[in-house]
Amino acid sequence: MRVPRSERILAYVILIVMAILVLVPVLAGSVTAFKPQIIWVSSPPTWIFEPTLENFEFVFFTRKGWLFLRNSLIISIGSVVIALILGVPAAYAFARFRFRSSKALMQWLISLRMIPPIVVGLPFYAMFLYLERGLGVGLRDTFPGLIITYQTFLLPLVIWMMRGYFAELPAAMEESAMVEGYTRLGALWRVVLPVVWPGIVATAILNFIFAWNEFFLALILAGNRTSTLPMSAGTYIVRTRVEWGNLFSVNLIIMVPVIVLTIILRRQLVKGLTFGILE
Amino acid sequence: MRVVLKDLVKRFANSDRAAVNNINLLIEEGELAVLLGPSGCGKTTTLRMIAGLEQPDSGRIAIAERDITNLAPKDRGVAMVFQNFSMYPTMNVYDNIAFPLHAVKMKRGEIDRTVREMARLVNIDHLLGRSVRQVSGGEAQRVALARAMVRRPQVFLMDEPLSNLDAKLRVQLRTEIKRLHQDTGATFIFVTHDQEEAMTLGDKIIVMNNGDIQQAGTPHEVFFAPRNAFVANFVGTPSMNMLTGAVSQDESGGIRLQLPGFDLSLPERFSRGLENMTGNRVIWGIRPEAIKLAAEPGENCAPGEVELVEALGSRDLIFVRVAEQLFGVIVDALESVAVGDNCHLHFAAAQMHLFDAESERSLLNNLPSAVPPSQWGGG
Ligand SMILES: Nc1ncnc2c1ncn2[C@@H]1O[C@H](COP(=O)(O)OP(=O)(O)OP(=O)(O)O)[C@@H](O)[C@H]1O
Ligand SMILES: [Mg+2]
């Protein structure tokens, strides 16, 4: 598509402004993560200093950052795995079969993505409380509890993305395998999955990023045992002051994997994020 | 293996008319049957029901006297070549051909032997290591053929396997399919909407329209003795000239046909069916090959003027206006006919067709019948 020169210039101007808006605080913060405590908030800001890792050491060991990192990994990877196990077959069904109210179901799934987390989090909290008191099933502040809750925003995304990948493949591919001696599941396993594999990886990574960044549901439903990295970042903002250097070193620990994954995946991500528009 | 379809009906959701509407069909063992019809007439649906990819709403399907209506596709002993799918994209040519053999747990050495033999049969043995991206459309379609043959099925189903190829390749592969059919002796059911392909390939042509079988017969039968106006019009290029007229009788009792702008005396063979039809409306048809240009007027002639000349190579297709009607006529290219020429069209009486204007059924009586119901299940 040819875009007129003026429009292209406009697009670049907007992108540059947005990049500045996003990058300047991130960069300034990231620099602070390497500053010794005395110059965290010096005025004017110090730009030339000897970088130190003492903030990282503090948050990682003294304040048990490694524990939060572990929790975040368990919850993110666990919920992505569950979302894929449930979502990939569901996406295949949505792509291939028309069943009663399949269309309405799909729309409902998409609408789930637009619900603010508090609308999901508080009922889950009440539900978990009820389960705990009524049936003795403890889900509050447990990994399974959080993993279940995270399905509310991961599952729709998995189904939506994977449905697109499946729909692109000709149905004749499985049908051919079915005539050639395989069951539908066998055909799915042997011919469809190898083809959509890159799509599954892209879906997994995007979902991992969403789960990794999640803050609000964890705030409501996690506790001492399951606290995640984003939650721990919050602990450096206390009533009287903000521990800038510590806060930003946690932020860096959170951000780095996201940036790396995004770079690895940037092409598929654009595709995954635009499914709704392009269809 | 003999394939029998009995009272087969398929209706898709959100559609008021049946995609396949109560069809009965018998395909003999070793026959190459062609399902021919315009787009949307139910050819693919019929084939998919035989393959088990679509479940019929009612009716039965039997292969080799065995009722397979409720069997899974993999248990039917059929192979299928699809129109828009040829190779599994994550496997190379070799693995594609071997794929159906892994389902039956064949020994490695035997798989290797079979794959190479099939590849040789369709002339792709030099491509075995290639990936999807490294083969052409025609080669990919050969891979699909080899993959279909590899389990030596008794029934081959082919859904327009050549329609995505260019004309030359299509003709070439058509010949190879015909040869495969002769070599394997299996039953082939081939779907196409290309009537030339149907004519050249088929032992039997099954003409379909709107989910119904219009006629099943040899290429010769559907061309020379169409059972109704649809078959007459659909089979043959350029297509048959058709006109609506009325039956009349002259003083001597001979049957005549009043057509817009001219009239004809009908040959003997029509008279039996038309004796009591005086005044009735009928559709008269004649193929472009059955019309000759005459210099002088005469019996069964009509005067006209040439409006258009299309070169077909050794012959020309010309369009001649007679009253309101434009007739397609095939003439020898050496006759040098020019636009604006006045001429007389002479209609060969032996090659006229006549159909009831209402039912569109042929008014000729000596027609081959459809499948006798007694042949169901070998009884
Ligand atoms: N899965 C489906 N859902 C709904 N309607 C369908 C489906 N498949 C086919 N049909 C309808 O059934 C009718 C017959 O379709 P079919 O595919 O058998 O036609 P066809 O003869 O193979 O045509 P073509 O030459 O275009 O391939 C058509 O009207 C089509 O729209
Ligand atoms: Mg079709």
Write the topology of this structure.
The complex is a heterodimer of chains A (279) and B (379).
Chain A lengths: L4 H29 L20 H9 L2 H32 L5 H11 L4 H19 L7 H26 L3 H8 L4 H30 L2 H6 L7 H6 L9 H21 L1 H13 L1
Helix pairs in contact in A: 1-11, 2-11, 3-6, 3-8, 4-6, 6-8, 7-8, 8-11
Chain B lengths: L2 E8 L9 E8 L4 E5 L6 H9 L6 E6 L2 E2 L10 E4 L11 H10 L5 H14 L15 H13 L5 E5 L7 H18 L2 E6 L2 H7 L2 E6 L2 E6 L1 H6 L4 H6 L6 E9 L5 E5 L2 E4 L2 H7 L6 E6 L4 E4 L6 E11 L3 E8 L2 E8 L9 E6 L4 E5 L23
Parallel strand pairs in B: 3-8, 3-9, 6-7, 7-8
Antiparallel strand pairs in B: 1-2, 1-4, 4-5, 9-10, 11-12, 11-14, 12-13, 14-20, 15-19, 16-17, 16-19, 17-18
Helix pairs in contact in B: 2-3, 2-4, 3-4
Bound molecules: adenosine-5'-triphosphate and magnesium ion.
Adenosine-5'-triphosphate binds next to α1 of chain B.
Describe the protein.
The complex is a heterodimer of chains A (about 280) and B (about 375). Chain A has a single domain, classed as Orthogonal Bundle (MetI-like fold), CATH 1.10.3720.10. Chain A contains twelve helices and no strands. Chain A has helices at about 5-35, 55-60, 65-95, 100-110, 115-135, 145-170, 170-180, 185-215, 215-220, 230-235, 245-265, 265-279. In chain B, about 25% of the residues lie in helices and about 30% in strands. Chain B contains nine helices and 20 strands. The chains are: A mainly alpha (about 280), B alpha+beta (about 375). The interface between A and B is medium-sized, with 18 and 24 residues. The structure holds adenosine-5'-triphosphate and magnesium ion.
